[in-house]
């Protein structure tokens, strides 16, 4: 287990209060694509539900908030990994100390599998 920061714990508390039910929505079957096989995508999906969905929405989009629609993220893994590790503009939290490279790679496979054309 990695150390979870106090900040993250606070976010989880907030998420619990606003309804953790949205994180347990039934999985929607997804097709594998070039960015990862189904097992990798599924691992990314679990991490996403735990660490990202309370801000970015259970399905990559959270209308009415400042979070960008991740389905429209460009096909640029380097940009994704850098943003997730370092955070962005003080609004997107940095995950470099919390998630391993493999977990971030799995997240990318999941996000890429949902990309809108
Ligand atoms: C505390 C809320 C919060 C959490 C948790 C969060 N994000 Fe974000 N994220 C944001 C916000 C806000 C932005 C927009 C930052 C900006 O552009 O100013 C953002 C931006 C991003 C971007 C940049 C998109 C781009 O076009 O460059 C990516 C990628 C991203 N988030 C992925 C993730 C992933 C993956 C996770 C889970 C590990 C995650 N986020 C967790 C709030 C959050």
TrEMBL record:
Gene3D superfamilies: Cytochrome c-like domain. Coiled coil: none annotated. Residues 1-29 form the signal peptide. Keywords: Heme, Iron, Metal-binding, Signal. Residues 39-115 form the Cytochrome c domain. This is Mono/diheme cytochrome c family protein. InterPro entries: Cyt_c-like_dom, Cyt_c-like_dom_sf, Cytochrome_c_Oxidase_Subunit.
């Amino acid at each position: 287990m990695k150390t979870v920061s106090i900040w993250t714990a606070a976010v989880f508390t907030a998420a619990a209060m606003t309804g953790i039910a949205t994180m347990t929505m039934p999985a929607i079957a997804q097709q594998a694509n070039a960015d990862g096989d189904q097992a990798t995508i599924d691992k990314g999906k679990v991490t996403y539900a735990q660490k990202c969905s309370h801000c970015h929405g259970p399905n990559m989009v959270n209308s009415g908030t400042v979070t960008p629609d991740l389905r429209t993220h460009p096909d640029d893994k380097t940009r994704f990994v850098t943003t997730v590790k370092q955070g962005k503009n003080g609004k997107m939290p940095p995950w470099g100390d919390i998630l391993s490279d493999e977990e971030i790679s799995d997240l990318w496979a999941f996000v890429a599998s949902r990309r809108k054309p």
